[in-house]
Specification:
A seven-stranded mixed sheet has the order 4-3-2-5-6-9-7, sandwiched between helices. It has a two-stranded antiparallel sheet with strand order 1-8. The model has no long low-confidence stretch (mean pLDDT about 95). The chain is an alpha/beta fold. About 40% of the residues are buried. The termini are far apart. The protein has two domains: about 200 residues, Vaccinia Virus protein VP39 (Rossmann fold); about 70 residues, Helicase, Ruva Protein, domain 3 (Orthogonal Bundle), CATH 1.10.8.100. The structure holds S-adenosylmethionine.
Amino acid sequence: MYKDIATPIRTKEILTKYGFSFKKSLGQNFLIDPNILRNIVSHANLTKDSGAIEVGPGIGALTEHLARAAKKVVSFEIDQRLLPVLEDTLSPYDNVKIVHSDILKADVVKVIQEEMTNIKDIMVVANLPYYVTTPILMKLLNDRLPIRGFVVMMQKEVADRITAKPGTKEYGSLSIAIQYYCTAEIAMIVPKTVFMPQPNVDSAVIRLIKHDTPPVNVIDEDFLFEVTRASFAQRRKTIFNNLQAGLQNGKKNKEVILSALQMSGIEPTRRGETLAIEEFGRLADALYPHFCNRQ
Ligand code: SAM
């Protein structure tokens, strides 16, 4: 077993050796606690037959733990300055592939097809760059990757919104956008002290496991998300008022929206935050004929 990259002493050694300076704009907060890393990886339930996709390896702190636990690791890093560092720090591991790319622009499905042939169990495991947490998750979900799920670190405030249940103040369109695809839970809360440099916000690791089938069957997924976004546009407004303001088809919609709410068994005076995903599904389907006549 090799010396962990993620001890404070070894991390400092590596940073000094390469004269590396952190770029705040790239969300570079590296983990310097091997116990946290082991914990993160254990939540992913990887075996020696699994694959791991990582976003942002940094100097390889989490990557090496993934390399020890999985059959193959593919890791996407945007910062070119880290490539020689990773070549050095990860040299003991022959099962890691670093892809120099912005994850938001990468063809991840193609990379999986090329690098993970015959691997059936794939997880995304990452300490995400916080400035793009939501775009990264939404991209990887929309790409329909052949994965089991995600174990990812992010700012706690976003983790709370993603995992929120109806009736809470954190519950909103992001909760629904993610919970439509996955079960979502907070796996651990992480103190600032395990990062270098320390971030300004608290952090949490969440675990998302993809549903076999979505919790609601809807005519049009994009329209479901349009309805949920409109329903939460102004949190203090009723669902009826938000829908009237947010859904546009060039006509007066009052009657149509009232009758769709009635058909779905939803009181027009309720607020979006009280609606479960199944209710949003019924509502989206009832509104669909009136707002999606897209011929
Ligand atoms: N995994 C390392 C760790 O835990 O110590 C580093 C995590 S650090 C929070 C985020 C990493 O993501 C950095 O290495 C950063 O350069 C990289 N990164 C930032 N934006 C990215 C993007 N759009 N695509 C790929 N990597 C990105």
